[in-house]
């Protein structure tokens, strides 16, 4: 028996470019007619979609040279989503009920070109794990920095979707000590007790008003905490933040340290601006003398990483060797508030909106 399709569906659109961090009023949940698929399109009923901080940059109107396009007033938001196939083109390998991922989240139903649908790995204990941001952490740690036995690894922004997996991945790859950073003592405690971080630092957060007014004070506060947690320095940095934390990490680098830059939350989630820049001052002389490598990570430059990560992630999950911290937000109408709370640092781990009618 075929389930009747709705005549209208809901999606989240940009109502107005945000001034500072996006507020729920900047987004609108609207009803729109459900269009018929074109010959090469798959109709997917979304079950979950990812809420991620990078949207702030895409919404701000000043995104330049980003791997995906920025958004303007009236556009429907997008991002990673997981759903079930409702209709597929004739001759397609996909069948109704198949679970797929794609990049047209923030809507209840998506019309997705068949070539842009990826079947969910059946080896994953929970299909929503395919929406994790762990591929960025895994790719940066295996392709850019490497992790050697005995390494001291620092992960900034450790309570987010990338960081909550990065510390665990570093440990599984052989790190001897893993240090994280986050903005609150509550999240720091969870990172230690639940995710195995050896130490978590909270000084130097870009969210604290005095830091914005006096970046040198933020640097000094963080550098002092880092020196206590890693008195002999660090070998690897996976940086999601930039700002004072990256500057202090340069000073704490051991000879031959390897740094991978994955995010720039100090700029993306700053109260002011459009989230499209993250300037900072670092000591280039120290980079040279210590032979530090510093590289940015983009997933599009490493197309082989995603499949490799999913295989290892599924195996680690089945063995109980890794945890997948997940915050579920129920209902598309709560998505605008979820984005605001994520940018304010109130949520932990990977954040997904779960659409009703699904377990």
Distance between the termini: 21 Å
CATH topology of the largest domain: Rossmann fold
Strand content: 15-25%
By CATH reckoning, the class of the largest domain would read Alpha Beta
Fraction of residues in H or I helices: 25-40%
* Uncertain regions spanning at least 5 consecutive residues: none
Radius of gyration: 21 Å
Specify the biggest β-sheet.
7 strands, mixed
CA-based shape: globular
| CATH architecture classification of the largest domain | 3-Layer(aba) Sandwich
Total strand segments? 15
Fold and architecture overview:
This protein has 359 residues and is α/β, with parallel strands linked by helices. It folds into two domains: 8-132 and 324-354, Alpha-Beta Complex (Quinone Oxidoreductase, Chain A, domain 1); 134-301, Rossmann fold. 29% of the residues lie in helices and 23% in strands. It is built from eleven helices and 15 strands. It has helices at 55-59, 134-145, 163-172, 185-195, 209-213, 215-229, 243-252, 265-268, 284-290, 305-319, 335-343, and strands at residues 8-14, 27-33, 41-51, 81-87, 99-102, 109-113, 118-119, 152-155, 177-181, 199-201, 234-239, 253-261, 293-296, 326-330, 350-354. β8, α3 and β9 (177-181) form a beta-alpha-beta unit. α2 (134-145) crosses α3 (163-172) and α2 crosses α10 (305-319). The protein starts with 7 loop residues before the first strand and ends in a 5-residue tail after the last strand.
């Amino acid at each position: 028996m075929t389930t009747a399709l709705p005549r209208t569906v809901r999606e989240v659109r940009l109502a107005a470019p945000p001034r500072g961090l996006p507020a729920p009023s900047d987004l609108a949940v609207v009803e729109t007619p459900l269009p018929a698929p074109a010959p090469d399109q798959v109709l997917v009923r979304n079950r979950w979609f990812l809420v991620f901080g990078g949207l702030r940059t895409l919404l701000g109107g000043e995104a330049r040279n980003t791997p995906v396009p920025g958004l303007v007033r009236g556009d429907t938001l997008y991002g990673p989503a997981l759903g079930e196939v409702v209709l597929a083109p004739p001759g397609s390998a996909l069948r109704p009920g198949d679970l797929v991922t794609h990049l047209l989240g923030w809507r209840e139903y998506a019309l997705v070109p068949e070539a842009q649908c990826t079947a969910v790995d059946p080896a994953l204990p929970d299909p929503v794990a395919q929406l994790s941001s762990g591929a960025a952490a895994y790719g940066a740690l295996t392709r850019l920095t490497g992790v050697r036995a005995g390494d001291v690894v620092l992960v900034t922004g450790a309570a987010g979707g990338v960081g909550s997996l990065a510390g665990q991945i570093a440990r599984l790859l052989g790190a001897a000590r893993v240090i994280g950073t986050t903005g609150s003592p509550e999240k720091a405690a969870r990172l230690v007790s639940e995710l195995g971080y050896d130490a978590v630092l909270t000084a130097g957060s870009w969210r604290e008003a005095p830091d914005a007014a006096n970046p040198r004070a933020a640097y000094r506060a963080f550098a002092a905490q880092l020196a206590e947690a890693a008195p002999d320095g660090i070998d690897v940095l996976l940086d999601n933040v930039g700002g004072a934390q990256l500057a202090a990490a340069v000073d704490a680098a051991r000879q031959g340290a390897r740094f991978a830059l994955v995010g720039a939350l100090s700029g993306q989630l700053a109260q002011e601006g459009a989230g499209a820049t993250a300037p900072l001052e670092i000591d280039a002389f120290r980079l040279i003398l210590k032979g530090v490598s510093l590289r940015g990570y983009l997933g599009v430059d490493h197309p082989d990483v995603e499949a490799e990560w999913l295989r290892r992630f599924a195996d680690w999950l089945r063995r109980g060797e890794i945890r997948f911290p997940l915050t579920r937000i129920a209902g598309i109408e709560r998505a605008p508030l979820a984005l605001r709370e994520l940018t304010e640092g109130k949520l932990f781990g990977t954040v997904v909106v779960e659409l009703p009618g699904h377990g």
